[in-house]
Amino acid sequence: MVTLGMLITSTNLHAQTTLKEAFKNDFLVGVAINQNQFNNADQRGDPIIKAQFNAISPENILKWQSVQPTPDGYDFTEADQYVEFGESNHMTTVGHTLVWHNQTPRWVFQDANGRPLSGTNAADRELLLQRMHDHIQTVVGRYKGRIQIWDVVNEALQDNGQLRKSPWEKIIGDDYIEKAFQYAHEADPAAILRYNDYSLENEAKRNGAIALIKKLQAEGIPVTAIGLQDHAKMDWPTVEQEDATISAFAALGLKVMITELDVNVLGGARTAEITEMANQGGTNVYNNGLPPDVQQALAKRYADLFGVFAKHHGAVSLVTFWGVTDGDSWLNRPGRMNHPLLFDRAGRPKPAFQAVVQVGLRQSAAK
Ligand code: GLA
To answer: What is the mean predicted confidence (pLDDT) over 63-67?
Structure first.
């Protein structure tokens, strides 16, 4: 049912410069979408997606557990719908994610009897490499030429910049990363291949990622883009950290992409603490919406971040939000209503939306 609020929202949106227009000379503006959205069933979200964005990422449906839940059981029903949605709306379509330690079924790291594969057993290494190869070949191969950008390896680093001791690393060894990129390149030589991670704005982790990328480049491994997830907070990363991080990766010759942008207005407070604050009537809990001063602070925060992205428009080729409206965000938990995106729960553009568009328009005017 179309309500008056939705009509007003869509009228407003049509009258305004859109995100993709505001940055058309700078970078693509993307959004992570869910199943209702790529099935055109989200009456609030779909008009926003189609009007505002020219790139999409799949929030969950291309993760290993979704496409290959069992050893022989690929299921591409939803992934096919997602890719068709991108094509019919002429959007750059991202694949996320091939090799990760989360949302990967347990069987991947076990033998046929459910025994964990071991890093000290050469046959186990071969078995896991074979599984990785088959998975990448099948998934990337299926969408060859239709998915333009792949997150090949996700979150391989720890905060200290050392490789994470994930099952991939423990069973195969450090070179699982090389292998993943090689297999992806083999399956679609034209695809842009990303290394994607969070907190790369922090120096230790950033230095670890730079060392990793340099090593891969020296070995001739086809890593062509870096994904900065940018699950941001109101006070992290600083503008200086963001600026230095983009510069550092651009200097390696990589395309730089902001892959999972949102701004957590609840910061690091844990759910229990937030519930407690709410019980005590705390004013820093936003279960009834963002107060005007916080709304403005969020707008400024977004403008500051986009100021940095726009400054690096030659290096930054895509900025993707992790969700359409605040209600879609993974940052919501029971008792913990978050407001991290540019559109509120009713699909109305927030002051942060206007602030971001203004950055784009100022950037175009300066050219
Ligand atoms: C990571 C993953 C995303 C998503 C987010 C939020 O950043 O890359 O796919 O799962 O966590 O859960």
So the answer is: 98
Contact residues of ligand 1, CB 6 A cut-off: 96, 154, 198, 229, 260, 330
178 is an active site residue = no
**Spacing, Cα 159 to ligand 1 middle (Å):** 16
Q: What topology is assigned to 4-366 in CATH? A: TIM Barrel (3.20.20)
pTM of the entire predicted model: 0.93
Nearest protein CA to atom 12 of ligand 1, as residue: 330
At 3 the pLDDT is: 44
pLDDT tens, position by position, 264-321: 998 766 667 767 776 776 656 788 889 999 999 999 999 999 999 999 999 999 999 9
Query: If you measure from the C-alpha of residue 11 to the centroid of ligand 1, how many angstroms do you get, rounded to a whole number?
Result: 33
| CB-CB contact of 342 with 302 (8 Å) | yes
Catalytic residue list contains 260? yes
User: Hey, where are the domains in the chain?
Assistant: 4-366
In angstroms, what is the span from residue 227 Cα to ligand 1's centroid? 12
